[in-house]
Amino acid sequence: GSPDYRDAGLVFPPGFTFGSATASYQVEGAFDEDGRGPSIWDTFSKTPGKVWNGDTGDVACDHYHRVDDDLDLMRELGLGAYRFSIAWPRIMPTGTGAVNQAGIDFYSRLVDGLLERGIRPVATLYHWDLPQALEDAGGWPARATTDAFERYAEVMGAALGDRVHTWTTLNEPWCSAYLGYGQGGHAPGRHEPAAALAAVHHLNLAHGRAVQALRATSTGDPDYSVTLNFHVLRGLGDGAAEAMRRIDGLANRVFTHPMLKGEYPADVLADTASVTDWSFVRDGDLDAINQPLDVLGVNYYSTATVRLWDGVSPKQMNDGHKGAAGGTAWPGSDRVVEFVEQPGPYTEMGWNIAPEGLEELLLALTEEFPDQPLMVTENGAAFADVVAEDGSVPDPERLDYLRRHFTAAHRAMVRGADLRGYFVWSLLDNFEWGYGYAKRFGIVRVDFDTLERTVKDSGRWYSRLARTGVLPG
Ligand code: GBH
């Protein structure tokens, strides 16, 4: 059925999935237990100056040891689905070679625990914790990493493919490629524009090969997906359209076009010609990348505003502008694109709050890929919550952020977007990458001294939405 409006509020269609999401390195802890090998985030977070306050994921939310309690929490909240990621270095400590059975067992128990509680498991193979040994051998700019990923996907398909509801290959390859190898704000912290573009291609290829490997080994009937973070763009100045075209190409189309159309956009190849000749793309790669997807995962937090900035070198620009997407993150920099400060209001991340951007994005994807079902795999907000005297955690800003974004998603559905579900980022306050524990995205508060969990007001609100499918008017 199609979504409708009632006096009671906005009604989501029956079967719409209300979920919440986390990622392995951000919540698990237990970094050196049961045979887990080191990942690039262990190395990065232990490199002085890389992560706020020197925070690491060594303990994080200690989810690895508290998984049963966290499962009960999810059931109490009435979640229909849980999106988690698998730590590759728990499965294969060096990324290749022998499988570590203890790693498989952990995720197998998690999946069973979800199913017992009536919660659909949505499993992501890669949410940024690359085994360090693979980085030492070249990381994502090296083609061999795609071979290793394909093998890892086979192992996971065979292990969990009888029970997982949805497989997601990669989370936000944009971040892995550009923040990891271009701008350097994420692990492994490299600043090599050409390597970032090689990483883009190898992540695309890893995705396509993994879908095929999962299909070959999963004995259930799972859905297949990938999660991308889209840039919803605004432009400023005379060159606004050109600036937007460039970033749309480098950030959005460089992933969607190979994955969903089997080709790289010609304008992106031209824009980046001074950086790389794309000779890492081999015969047959685009066919391998171009796999039909049951759902396309969409992560959305805010919009971005860009303008052409001529006459300033990329180096200077990188020094002066710390935006995650700034400077050398954008390798086609013969005409540099600048990311501009946007009007507020903002979340604690400094990201502007723009729910209309989500509606616009879902409709734009519907227009470009008409038969492609969509899933919001992440949306949420960081705010500095305070625990009230009665022990509750009032978080009106987060609640309002979520209410407005769910409303925007509903509007997109009314206007034709085939949106199947929505995952709030995040279930728990957790290790927020370069920001450590300073930023809280959870609908459940975590006290990082006691590791105690407390459902925030937004969590209670979301619980009602998940149970009823109705967004109160
Ligand atoms: C997601 O990434 C991650 O999947 C998740 O692990 C993470 O915890 C969560 O979001 C919250 O951060 O630098 O001003 O140009 C978010 C990816 C990409 C969102 C860059 C903001 C641009 C802001 N981000 N984006 S700016």
Automatic annotation (TrEMBL):
The keyword tRNA processing belongs to this UniProt entry's keyword annotation: no
UniProt-listed Pfam families: Glyco_hydro_1
EC code: 3.2.1.-
Top-rank EC class of the record's enzyme: hydrolase
Coiled coil: none
InterPro entries (alphabetical): GH (IPR017853), GH_1_N_CS (IPR033132), Glyco_hydro_1 (IPR001360)
Keywords: Glycosidase, Hydrolase
Recorded GO MF terms: hydrolase activity, acting on glycosyl bonds
PROSITE patterns on file: GLYCOSYL_HYDROL_F1_2 (PS00653)
Family, per entry: Belongs to the glycosyl hydrolase 1 family.
Listed name of the protein: Glycoside hydrolase family 1 protein
UniProt organism field: Microbacterium insulae
